[in-house]
Automatic annotation (TrEMBL), chain A:
Alphabetical UniProt keywords: Cell inner membrane, Cell membrane, Electron transport, Membrane, Translocase, Transmembrane, Transmembrane helix, Transport
Superkingdom of source: Bacteria
Keyword presence, Lyase: no
A single Gene Ontology CC term: plasma membrane
Entry membrane topology: Multi-pass membrane protein
Protein name: Ion-translocating oxidoreductase complex subunit A
Assembly and interaction partners: The complex is composed of six subunits: RnfA, RnfB, RnfC, RnfD, RnfE and RnfG.
Main localization of the protein described in the UniProt heading: membrane
Function: Part of a membrane-bound complex that couples electron transfer with translocation of ions across the membrane.
Protein location: Cell inner membrane; Endomembrane system
From TrEMBL, chain B:
Origin species: Candidatus Sedimenticola endophacoides
Organism classification: Bacteria, Pseudomonadati, Pseudomonadota, Gammaproteobacteria, Chromatiales
Location (main, coarse): membrane
UniProt-recorded name of the protein: Ion-translocating oxidoreductase complex subunit E
Entry similarity comment: Belongs to the NqrDE/RnfAE family.
Subcellular location per the Swiss-Prot or TrEMBL entry: Cell inner membrane; Endomembrane system
């Protein structure tokens, strides 16, 4: 149990997917303009991450021991079809949500956080429960980073910023400062 | 002659005017994660070069056989195949670098630049042009990787490609090889790139204005 809590906290804060591993940067830099959208995208990504963890556990346990070189291709095929499935389900169940996230759902497929989770969980040899907790932590960490970024960017819109630095350059520097702040959480482990 | 020039242009545009990192802001994940030393950047750049050229070649050759509805999935499978080859090759030739790059070699698949080139270029052009375009884009990507990796290793470790440059008196800026250094260095490089582009625009506008006055 202790172990599971550490996996969650590590993925949420210390080894935050966005700010420490640089995974999922495309949506982090591209879609983080509005707080509301960022939060929803974070939730959608968390959902896909959890399903990815389940799929990759299944593949790792039953299929890949026989053909390790197919690891990458099978991960991608499974993840892509999962996202397709979620897209159809959301379209049917909640047209409003579909409208809000619309074009971003296919983007989640090419989100490296998704594939990164599958590969990290495999490399660390996580079992089913550990993988699930890891996915939840990573998703929560992604959502946290997105929401923080969107909050700062909404504030920045009201300030007088030189035209030259506006856009990606500014976002990257903000991300750097956030990342520095998150490095402070590394102390959690040595004391624990 | 016109044909020659257009392939040269399509190579050069990837290097500067349509640089995948500085202008299109694509391929950020591998870009930032592996550029803490110049050597890692170089290996990552070469792996991307191999994957992009291979998949552009295959997509351009097979473009008449690929059904439109499933093209994206097929592109991804083609890319994943080349990435698997690159992954196992690096593991065999440079095990130390492979260990350091870790999960980020398989993650080349998720580099949006590669898929973007298949959809936007290779599937619409001949084999030769597709390979030239892929080479240009990879060269631009490698240029950005080396610029970032060079700056980060130089300031964070006082060395370049593992060769010590500043001697023992240099106090390394450890933050540069840690994640925040990656974000901030890339932000500053983008700023520099924007500044150069803005100056060039201003210069061209001035030239145009002077020309109008002369007339």
């Amino acid at each position: 149990m202790d172990n599971l809590i550490w996996i969650f906290i590590s993925a949420l804060l210390v080894n935050n997917f966005v700010l420490a591993y640089f995974l999922g940067l495309c949506p982090f830099l591209g879609v983080s303009g509005r707080l509301e959208t960022s939060f929803r995208l974070g939730l959608a990504t968390t959902f896909v991450l959890v399903i990815t963890a389940i799929c990759s556990w299944f593949l790792n346990t039953y299929i890949l021991p026989h053909a390790p070189y197919l690891r990458l291709i099978s991960f991608i095929v499974v993840i892509a079809s999962t996202v397709q499935f979620i897209e159809m389900a959301i379209k049917k169940l909640s047209p409003a949500l579909f409208k809000a996230l619309g074009i971003f759902l296919p983007l989640i497929t090419t989100n490296c956080a998704i594939l990164g989770l599958a590969i990290f969980a495999t490399n660390k040899g996580y079992g089913f429960t550990e993988g699930l907790v890891f996915a939840l932590g990573a998703g929560a960490g992604f959502t946290l980073a997105m929401v923080l970024m969107a909050g700062i960017r909404e504030e920045a819109e009201l300030s007088d910023i030189p035209a030259l630095i506006q856009g990606t350059a500014m976002n990257l520097i903000i991300a750097g400062i956030l990342s520095m702040a998150f490095m402070g959480f590394a102390g959690l482990f040595s004391s624990g | 002659m016109a044909r020659e020039q257009s392939s040269y242009e399509s190579f050069i545009k990837g290097l500067w005017r349509e640089n995948p990192v500085f202008v299109q802001v694509l391929g950020m994940c591998p870009m930032l994660a592996v550029t803490n030393t110049a050597l890692n950047s170089l290996v990552m750049g070469l792996a991307t070069l191999f994957v992009l050229m291979g998949s552009s070649f295959l997509v351009a050759s097979l473009k008449h056989l690929i059904p439109k509805q499933v093209r994206i999935s097929l592109y991804i499978i083609i890319i994943a195949t080349f990435v698997t080859i690159a992954d196992y090759t690096i593991l065999a030739l440079l095990p130390a670098v492979h260990k350091e790059l870790g999960a980020f070699i398989p993650l080349i698949v998720a580099n949006c630049m590669i898929l973007g080139r298949q959809e936007a270029f290779a599937s619409r052009h001949g084999v030769r042009m597709a390979v030239v375009d892929a080479a240009g884009m990879s060269a631009g990507f490698m240029f950005a990787l080396l610029a970032l990796g060079g700056v980060r290793e130089l300031l964070g470790n006082g060395s370049l490609f593992g060769v010590d440059l500043f001697g023992p008196g240099f106090e390394p800026w450890v933050i540069m090889i840690l994640p925040p250094g990656g974000f901030i260095t890339l932000g500053l490089l983008l700023l520099l790139f924007n500044w150069i582009a803005a100056r060039k625009r201003a210069f061209l506008a001035e030239v145009a204005a002077t020309e109008r006055e002369m007339l």
